[in-house]
Amino acid sequence: MANHPISIESAGGEYMEAVLVVSWAAKPGDRVKAGDLIVTVETAKAATEVEASHDGWLTRIDFAEGQEAPVGAVLGLISDTEEMATEPIASQPDPVSAAGTSGLENAFAAPVAASTPRATDDRIIASPLARRIARQAGIDLAGVTGTGPNGRIKQRDVARALDPHPAPARPKGLSSTSGAAGIMATGSRLIPIVLLHGFGADKSAWRQVLPLLGKDIETLALDLPGHGSSTDQPADSIEQLAYWVSDKLEAEGIEHVHLVGHSLGGATALALTSLGRVAVQSVTLLAPAGLGPEINGSFITGLTRSETPDALERWLTLMLGENAALPQGYAAAVIRQIEKIGNRGALEALVGRLFAHDTQAFDMVPALKALSVPTRIIWGRSDRVIPASHAARAPDFAAVHLLPGVGHVPQMEAPALTARLIMETVRSTG
Amino acid sequence: MALMRYAEALNAALREEMAADPSVFLFGEDIGRYGGVFKVTKGLMEEFGESRVRDTPISEQAMTAMAVTAAMTGTRPVLEIMYADFIPLSLDALVNQASIYNYIWDGKVKMPFVLRTQGGGGSGAGAQHSKALDSMLAHIPGIKVVAPSTPADAKGMLKAAIRDDQPVVFLEHKLLYNVRGEVPDGDIIVPLGKAATLREGKDVSLFATSKMVVEAVKAADLLQADGISAEVIDLRSLRPLDVNAIVTSISKTHHAVVVNEGWRFCGYAAELSATIMDFAFDELDAPVARVTLPDMPIPYSEPLEIAMLPNADKIRAAALATLK
Question: What's the pTM?
C-alpha cells in the first residue's frame, strides 16, 4: 500500500510558520482523484486550495478544521487502497520536552515513538550496510523485501537477493578444509572454478568471495608456489607459474576449469590458457598483471621488505581504494605467514625477475586477445597498484567492469559484486 | 604471573611507582593510617612515610587544586577522591586549571597528576555514593579518563597514568576491588588509549568499560546459549578513545551495543554511538543500541537499584533487538 502525504510547502511566503486548516473537502474514507480540491488552508496572504496529488482514498486527517498546522506538516494521507490508516500523527511529542530538561515526570516519560512505521512516504528503509552492499552489487533495493524491524532491509535480505538459494552450511574459512599443496575444494559440480591469488597473497584472498559463489559449483583456491602453505619454490616466470598450476590440476584429475585470477594470478590464468593443457571454459580477471608496463614498484618492494606489521600495513593499505582501512590484524597475519614460510628472499627474487625497475616484464595481451571463451575483466577505478587504464587493452569480446571507489582487490573490497560477476561469467558458458 | 585482587594490583602499582620515583606521592581522605576505605593504599604510609602518603581533610575542591599545583611544581601526585559522586567539587580545578594550562602556557607546563576515584552502583550505597560520572569527566579536553576492568589492566594502566605528563582521571569501581585475576610480574605498562578484545565474535560487538565489561562478558555467555557470537571490547580508556578498535569490530559484526553505567542523556554511550556513526556508518546493519542507567537518581532501596542498573540481561536483550 503506497501512501501519499498531503502537505503544503512554504505556504504563503517563506516567513510563514503555520497555516490554519479552514475546511476539508473530503472526509476519511472518501474516494479522491488527482487534481480534486481536498483541503483549504489559510495562509498569511490568502486562503489556499490544496489539490489531491494522486488518485486514491483519503484515509487520514491529521489536522482538523480550525487547527493550525506547521508549514511542511503532513495534513492527511491519500492511500492507493481503501484500507484506513491507523494512528494519526496529530499529537507528535514536542522534542524539547521529550529531551528531559527537568523534572521527574520527564525521567519516566516514554521515549518518542521513532519506531512507528513511517507510512507517509515510499522511502526505502534499509540499513547503511545493506545500502552499501546493494550499491556495490548494483542491486535496486526497491525489489528487496526487508525482514528487519519496520520492514527495514538488512544485510541478510540483500544477501538473499544476491543468492536466492544459499547453501545451508558454507565452509567457515579456508584453512580448516585446506588439502594437500594448499588446494581448497568445496561443492560438487563437475567443472570447478579455479582461483589464483596475487603476488604476496595466498588463497585466503578469496575468503570473502568463496561463500558467495553458487553452492552447486566446485571451487579450488590454490596457493601459488612460494605463497601461503605451498612449500614449492617461487617460479621464475609467468609460464612456470602456469605450468605449476596445470601440474596441480592434472594431479587432481581436473581437465576442465573456469579460471579466476587476481593480479599476478590473472597473468598466470592467461598463461595457463596458452599452454593448452587444461580446457578453460571461462576467464574472470581481477586487476590482472601483464596488460601494460606500469606497476607500483614501491608497493611491491614495500610488500617484500617490510618486517613489522606497522610498516607492512602502510604498504598494504595501497591495495585498497582511497580512505579504506585494512581489517585489524591483517598485516600482522601476513607478516607471520611470510616468517613461517621463510620465503622473503624467494619473493624478492621473483620481484627482480617479474617487476624490475617498476615495470611489468611480461605481456599477456596476446594471450588475452587469443581467448575464445567468455571473458570478463574487473578493475577498481582507484587501483593504486596497477592502473585501471590497462583495462582499455581488453579485446572487444571481453566484458570490462570498472568499479568506483574500489582499489586493487575487488574480491576484498566488493566481494558481493565480484562473486556475482564471477558467477555470471561461469553461467554464461551454459 | 600472580593471582591478585583488583585493589591489590592497584596497591602494587602505587608501591612500585613510589619506589621507582621519589617525586610520586599520595594524598586523600583516610588513605594513610587507615589504608583507604577500599584498602588500595594499605601499608604504603608505613613503607614510604607520612610525607609521601598524606591524610587530608574532606575538601575535594582544595585537594584537587593542590594536585594541580603540586604537579605544576615538579612532583607526580596521586590524589584519591573517595567517591566519584563528589567529583563535581573537583571540576573547577579540572575544567579551568588542569586541562588548560598546557594550552595557555604553550606547552611549557606539565601536569603529571593522577586523580584516582571509584564510582558505580550495586552496593546499596544510595543516591550520593553510587554514581558513575565518567561522561562528565570524559567531556573535558586535555584530560585522560581511563577505567580498567581487570586486575592486570588496573596495575598496568595505573603505572602508565602515573608516568603520564597529562592529568589522568583513573576510574575504579567499588564492586571490582575484590575481583581476582592474573597480573603479570614486573614493570608492566598498559598504554592508555588502547582497547582490548576480551572475546572474539562475529554477530554483534559489545563495547564497555569498568564493571560493565564484566556484565558484557556475562552477556556474551548468555548470547552464546542463544546461538549468537558476541565480540566483547573492553575500551579501557574513555579518552583517548580507541576508535580503530571500534571500527574494526563493527566492520566485522555490523551490529553494536554500547554500554555505560552512567546516565543516558548526554552520556558516554551517546558519544560512542555518535562516534560509530561518524566512522562506521556504512558498516551498520542496525541502529546502535545503548544500555545505560535510566535518567534518574539511584534509589537507596537495593531491589530498585538493581532493577535500574545496566546488567548482562539488559545487554543481551539489546543485542537481540539489534539483530532482529
Answer: 0.55
